[in-house]
Amino acid sequence: MKKISVAHSPDADDIFMYYAIKFGWIDINETKFENIAADIETLNQATLKGIYDICAISFALYPFVKDDYALLKTAVSFGEGYGPKLIKRKNSTLKRNFKVALSGEFTTNALLFKIAYPDARITYMNFLDIEKAVIDGVVDAGVLIHESILTYSNELEVEKEIWDIWVGLCDGEKLPLPLGGMCLRRSIPLHDAIKYEKALIKAVDVANKNRKTLAPMLLEKGLIRVDASTLDKYLDLYANDNSVKLSEIQYKAIDKLFELGYKHGHYQNLIKSEDFLIPENYEELRAR
């Protein structure tokens, strides 16, 4: 039996989208998926080093790993009117060169933040530590991600929504905010890669359709950091019908992110997301 490493973040939407496989709801013939959970920047860095076979990443990382990893079409998270939040202590004023905590160098929120605030002094830390760092005055502000956007302290207030930065940079185009997706090692044989992607698509679809069953199971097993009500709100945002398989508007949004990164000097080349997918027609051509 082949063993394939699948790494995802410990936040609620990634766990929710993966655990249909963990609970045995999806069968992958002669293959065992072994899951690893780590914060998103740890996964970004691991992907740069080629550690995992399949890995969750920030979309902003992908141009750096495109030669070694194919972009998967499933388990994606987008914001539509919401997303990460730049927060500060209540009634404080940020200077032009304020000190800010971000969740990682290669995260999507970091890319958009750097474009919007080129003079800010950036420090990176685990996303779970950012809220406390702002409250304690270690930094002037921080960008919250994952469940923290719903649960942050009333000592804090929002300075700027990353969604608003995104909208401003899109010049009138109405596009969802591309946050995170998954990629697969290119050295995996193509027929296996197609099989694994189909299994992951099915897993996300099954999880989404059986949310009322799966969500309580995750809470009961202590796999989720928030309560039932917050989990429900969070899954509405990031693990929904739009997470199952990339759509045309989502491809456009990812390409816009890549365009912005290239325009502002973060990427050496301008790429299109659909050029880096696993070719779906391979099996059909092989059968001829």
TrEMBL record:
Coiled coil: none annotated. InterPro entries: Menaquinone_biosynth, MqnD. Pfam families: VitK2_biosynth. The active site is at H146. Gene3D superfamilies: Periplasmic binding protein-like II. It comes from the Bacteria. This is 1,4-dihydroxy-6-naphtoate synthase. The gene is mqnD.
